[in-house]
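Bumping my old thread because nobody answered last time. Still need a sequence for this structure:
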């Protein structure tokens, strides 16, 4: 079996720890039971080798033998296609997993990411910009609340890679108490983050960054 190597920063400041996106891949690889190792790249100096693998100078990316893959959604799809634990084998199930992976990124994270940047930056005051993004997030969470009110998981009532991505996207909202009015979303995040694979992945990421302090 080819070795999977997951690349992340050697260190990050305290606020984003537990939310850096290598967590999504750690979680997926743990759920799939696939062997992997984690390698570090410099947070402060992002050189040409880094850019060659991740054109935006971000993390994570992974290598699987000679193949190099960047962007968390693409990497999750790559890992999911290697394990039935993360993607059903039937055509309908596989199609639905792909739909929800794209929905998590293009429909939900498109709202939550700018919202969280404003929140982290302390720019969540009484402004038109904040009101716009806060309303945008509410619109998306209301849609997800309706979906999750009668589903434990997104596809075929079983946990898949789509849940890794969607739960991680929504989880950031919970950090700031945004899920208080969305009990189904809150319960979904709680179910997902209670899984042993998430608990291990989260602890491993925190330990990785703490070791560099």
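Sorry it took so long. Here it is:
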């Amino acid at each position: 079996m080819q070795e999977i190597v997951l690349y992340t920063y050697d260190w990050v400041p305290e606020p984003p720890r537990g939310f850096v996106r290598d967590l999504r891949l750690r979680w997926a690889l743990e759920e799939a039971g696939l062997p992997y190792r984690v390698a570090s790249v410099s947070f402060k100096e992002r050189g040409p080798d880094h850019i060659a693998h991740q054109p935006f100078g971000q993390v994570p990316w992974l290598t699987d033998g000679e193949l190099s893959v960047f962007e968390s959604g693409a990497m999750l799809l790559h890992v999911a296609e290697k394990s039935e634990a993360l993607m059903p084998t039937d055509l309908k199930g596989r199609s639905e997993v792909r739909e929800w992976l794209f929905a998590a990124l293009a429909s939900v994270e498109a709202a939550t990411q700018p919202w969280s940047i404003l929140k982290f930056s302390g720019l969540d005051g009484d402004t038109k910009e904040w009101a716009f993004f806060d309303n945008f997030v509410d619109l998306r969470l209301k849609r997800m609340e309706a979906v999750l009110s009668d589903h434990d998981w997104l596809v075929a009532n079983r946990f898949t890679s789509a849940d890794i991505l969607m739960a991680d996207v929504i989880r950031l909202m919970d950090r700031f108490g945004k899920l208080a009015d969305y009990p189904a979303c809150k319960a979904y995040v709680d179910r997902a983050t209670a899984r042993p694979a998430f608990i291990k992945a989260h602890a491993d990421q925190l330990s990785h960054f703490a070791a560099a302090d």
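The chain has two domains: 4-85+197-210, 91-195. Let me know if any region looks off to you.
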